[in-house]
Design a protein that fits this description.
Strand order of the largest sheet: 1-2-3-4-5-6-7
Number of strands: 7
CATH superfamily: Metal-dependent hydrolases
Largest sheet: 7 strands, parallel
CATH architecture: Alpha-Beta Barrel
Number of domains: 1
Radius of gyration: 20 Å
Helix content: 40-55%
Strand content: 5-15%
CATH class: Alpha Beta
CATH topology: TIM Barrel
């Protein structure tokens, strides 16, 4: 019996857990030796041990079978299908998910750089690799990653990602240093995605650290995250983590990108969704208040919030009141996600979502679990 059954489930957030040699396998020769070792952040020795155990398990069918009984309990590299595509297909059988977006986890730390050759060479390797991971199972949708640091190279990276077979493209929610992602220089990024029916994605981490470090220096004992490390989300981070994507998406609306590219879709992933309810109202207030002095706002033929309903989608956390959010913002905005196999997704996200959706219509539930995903992906 699969974990999820009784309706169609499209999972808008899952991850590949990279092994140490994963990225280098897909890198061009001139980039391969310049990639940094896999950096596991605050996870430390525990993560190193998990990677070592995973490398020993690779290709071991008996070890994989032993993990099936711990489908929602084993996390990270220890999870079924964390790094092996054949295992991931089996994991999807057991999960009962009909589609799943697949993001990487740590690979970007190996090539993040001001050196554009390294940055975009690493990007090419990443996008080849994530496409290859998903290639043999049509349920898996590879999410490419494209930095916007240089517009011309970003345009080429999107073209390559589409050619590799990626079904979505992750872009950072933090803007490049000197130019907005809504600048005309990036029009070919958005045009290519629109023409290929491929959505852009924003994901946690893409906006840097929105909370200034000084707020953690409060005279109290240092705080770890709920997983026991110091690099992930803590209570204070949770309060502001939505601000980078909120800003990015507001600019896409107010600067007319979504008007210029009306079939362009976007997903805001693993950054919560409760903030969307008041944000929709603020967008309309901003448009109405400033259109007399800002001609670009006056030229928008639709209400600002209508662009959001037409083109953007969001993944709530399982602990958020999704039923209330649907009641106040509509049933066309929010997406189911599991974060598999990351531990932040929890052991039973469906139970939490179902509890918050108890008073929601079956039509709205179907939209949450699959319909809004299908619309975002232009299925």
């Amino acid at each position: 019996m699969p974990y999820a059954e009784g309706r169609t489930y499209y999972d808008a957030d899952s991850h590949l857990m990279e092994l140490g040699d994963w990225l280098a396998t897909y890198a061009d020769p001139d980039i391969r030796d310049r990639l940094r070792p896999l950096y596991l952040g605050g996870a430390g020795k525990q993560a190193d041990d998990a990677v070592a155990a995973a490398e020993q398990r690779k290709g071991d069918a008996a070890a994989a079978a032993a993990l099936e009984g711990a489908l929602m309990k084993a996390k990270g590299w220890n999870a079924l299908g964390a790094f092996d595509p054949a295992e991931r297909s089996r994991a999807l059988d057991l999960l009962g998910f009909d589609k799943q977006l697949v993001f990487s986890t740590f690979a970007a730390t190996q090539y993040a750089s001001d050196d554009l050759d390294l940055l975009y060479g690493g990007t090419r390797a990443h996008n080849r690799g994530i496409a290859d991971f998903c290639n043999d199972d049509p349920r898996l949708i590879a999410v490419a990653s494209v930095p916007l640091t240089d517009a011309a190279r970003a345009i080429e990276a999107v073209r390559e990602a589409i050619a590799f077979g990626c079904g979505a493209v992750l872009v950072p929610s933090a803007p490049p240093k000197d130019i907005s992602p809504t600048h005309p220089d990036y029009n070919d990024v958005w045009a290519q995605l629109q023409d290929a029916d491929i959505p852009f994605m924003l994901h946690i981490g893409g906006g840097g650290r929105p909370l200034r470090r000084a707020f953690h220096n409060n005279g109290k004992a240092p705080t770890t995250d709920f997983l026991g490390g110091g690099e992930n989300i803590r209570a204070k981070d949770y309060m502001v983590m939505h601000q980078p994507p909120e800003t990015f998406l507001a600019m896409m609306v107010l600067d007319g990108v979504l008007e210029s590219f009306p079939r362009l879709k976007g997903g805001c992933i693993e950054q919560g969704g409760m903030w969307v309810v008041p944000w929709l109202r603020r967008l309309d207030i901003a448009q109405d208040t400033f259109k007399k002095t800002e001609p670009a706002l006056a030229s928008l033929p639709m209400k600002a919030s209508d662009y959001v309903h037409r083109q953007l989608r969001f993944t709530p956390f399982p602990t958020e009141p999704v039923g209330w959010m649907i009641e106040n913002a509509g049933d066309d905005l929010f997406l189911f996600s599991s974060d598999y196999p990351h531990p932040e997704g929890g052991r039973d996200p469906l139970r939490h979502f179902e509890a918050s959706l108890a008073d929601v219509s079956d039509v709205a539930k179907d939209r949450f679990y699959s319909g809004n995903f299908a619309d975002m992906m232009n299925a």
